[in-house]
Amino acid sequence: MPAMVRKLAQRLGMLQHSFVGGVHPNMHKLTADVAIEECDIAPVHVLPMKQHIGEICSPLVAVGDLVLRGQKIARSEGYLSVPVHAPTSGRVVKIEEHTIPHPSGMGLPSIFIESDGDDKSDESIAPISDWINTDPTQLRERARKCGLAGLGGAVFPTFIKLVQDKRFPIETVILNGIECEPYLTNDHRLMLEHAEEILEGMAIIMHMVGADSGIIAVEDNKQNAADSMQQALDARSDMDGVVVHVLPTRYPQGSEKQLIYTLTGREVPAGKLPMHIGVLSQNIGTTKALFDAVMLGKPLTERTVTVSGDALAKPSNLLVRLGTPVRSLFARQGLDDFSGIQIVHGGPMMGERLKNPDFPVVKSSTGLLAMSLQAMKAAHTVEQPCIRCGHCSEACPISLVPNLLADQCRSDQFEKAAQYDLFDCIECGACSYVCPSNIPLVHYFRYGKGQLALQRREDSFAEASRKRSETRDARIEREKAEKAARRSQVRKTHAPKTDEAKAETDAETKTGGEAGVADSKATESKD
Amino acid sequence: MISLLYALASLGVFALVAGIVLAIAQKLFHIEGDPMVEKLDALLPQTQCGQCGYPGCKPYATAVASGEADVNHCVPGGERTMLQIADLMGVEPKDLEAEPAAPMLAFVREDECIGCTLCIKACPVDAIVGAPKQYHTVIADHCTGCNLCVEPCPVDCIDMLMKPELIEHWSWPLPDTKRAQLGHERREQHAGHG
Ligand code: SF4
Ligand code: SF4
Ligand code: SF4
Ligand code: SF4
Known about the structure:
The complex is a heterodimer of chains A (527) and B (194).
Chain A: H1 3-11, E1 37-38, E2 44-48, E3 58-59, E4 66-67, E5 72-75, E6 84-85, E7 90-99, E8 107-115, H2 136-145, H3 158-161, E9 172-177, H4 186-193, H5 195-209, E10 213-219, H6 223-234, E11 242-247, H7 256-264, E12 279-283, H8 284-295, E13 302-308, E14 316-321, H9 326-332, E15 341-345, E16 352-354, E17 367-372, H10 373-380, H11 391-395, H12 402-410, H13 414-419, H14 430-434, H15 441-494, H16 499-526
Parallel strand pairs in A: 1-14, 9-10, 9-12, 10-11, 13-17
Antiparallel strand pairs in A: 2-8, 3-5, 4-7, 5-6, 7-8, 13-14, 15-16, 15-17
Helix pairs in contact in A: 4-6, 5-8, 12-15
Chain B: H1 2-28, H2 35-43, H3 57-65, H4 78-89, E1 104-108, H5 118-122, E2 128-129, E3 137-138, E4 158-162, H6 178-192
Antiparallel strand pairs in B: 1-4, 2-3
Bound molecules: iron/sulfur cluster (4 copies).
Residues 44-45, 47-52, 54, 56-57, 60, 74-77 of chain B line the site of one iron/sulfur cluster.
């Protein structure tokens, strides 16, 4: 179907549930046929104290401590948080700030572990092979304890979603095997190589949330992965409610809300979670990690990473321990000289562009790309005026008007942009991708969102400061009043009772009163 | 004659009822203070630093509302606050007198603090805690960086430090394309000349 016709049909709602907009970037899935290789253990691992969305962890170990693989080395503080575990056995050599993969280039406190080469595991977490007869809350605690966070890149603590809430019963569990970002192939390989484990993980999820039906969603550029999942599904008798859906490839199909709409026709309202419409979606890698946590008692200490890019000699899919220095991974794939190269953490559409490879692999590391600077820059240096072609609005899966939003952000009209739903933008980059004028649209949106967040933070701080200052003024006022009241009380008790007495003590009171005034002046000036 | 009395009486009753309703409304919907001052005060950063030449944000708001003070005296508020005040007052924006400094934070060197409580009394937002004769601490989340506690300290044990930049609070800069910078500058010029 020609794109124009399809888009029209989408907008008119004639095509059965399919998210609007979207683009078809060249997928560059260079590593689709490269089996996952297990990476050697690095001499030193760096574990940032926050690798998830939520609150930062605090270290449980001190410099010099010996740790085992899977041992908890940092405790989660607060609800929205998961602990961090040692990726291999060894010694804690340092606890200090280290760069993390973040567009700011800033760092976080991190634990450095020097491996001893033995890779001994902490066996204290027992497998729960009989999960079907295990209380879901216990399994949920297991997911938390094992440090699980969404491995698709969003790293939302997994346990939070795995809950049975009477108000929002989950009907459908979606296994998200879309992997719509160019270059990335780690979920693809996992589905080919670990279909049974993933399916078992899905069964555990369905048991945990009490759902009977499930959908495994795969794009048609990974037909073999869909076949592999189907095969594994056919081999099981207990998952009749689960089907494999093959969807036509389109970016950003893997985005949670878009995928849910395409599969179920139900829209997740703004500011709501999928659970509010009875859906739970889980990423492939996370589901595999849940299997490891429940069936093998293994905390999250490794993940699959696609190391690729047009500037890399030997792209591959690697099974890497968390905390492994990224520089060493690139070196392993034959890249040492980073001049003229743009490092990307994640996929090329949504990933972070970083100045250098001096950061560790973390839970959100779906991909590590080495892109030639020319290829990246060609798309993003010379910004031309907008020609109002409307391609960006057509591509936007949220039906925003990107050119208008960019104008507003560029001229600091942030509140206006917010009225035009700036915050609904999922930063998928589809608009920037299609813009013939090379306008870095998403970058403008990130700038606008950041400025608005800053303003709102400042406003709420000002509000809090005002309250504090008013409380203080009121207190000072009250204290003054109390002091005055006390003073007049004192004066009253010392005051003469009768007229005769008054005449006698008149002179005395006068001097006493004056002294009192002087006294109060002294205290006031001290205040 | 009777009908005239009726008319007078009913009018009188009506007037009485209306009077009572108005009196109640007056009590119910009474607004404390000058609404303009409140609105202006809501725009100010509440640092209470006195850099505007007034002893706090509210006094400055009062001065602006009465036309006594210009709109461009609040230094910590920066461009944004100045523009908002000018908008609200319906006057031309003016250039700021000084660039806002980087956000600061007071820090008490606790081993040197003699517990005199002078800084507590100076702090306009109650951001310092500590009992007399014991060392004092600044609640970092409450400190506005106004500098007012530094002067009163008799042993000079309060430092003003740069507020640490949190990775969560980092925000994207403007894209470094020519058009981005141009658009931004145009807007700033715009603001400068009304
Ligand atoms: S980045 Fe935002 S505005 Fe652009 S297409 Fe994606 S959702 Fe729409
Ligand atoms: S795609 Fe680019 S040039 Fe076309 S309307 Fe959108 S912003 Fe303007
Ligand atoms: S300069 Fe601004 S922040 Fe400081 S007291 Fe005056 S109005 Fe308040
Ligand atoms: S602690 Fe000092 S700098 Fe901070 S708000 Fe109080 S007086 Fe101002």
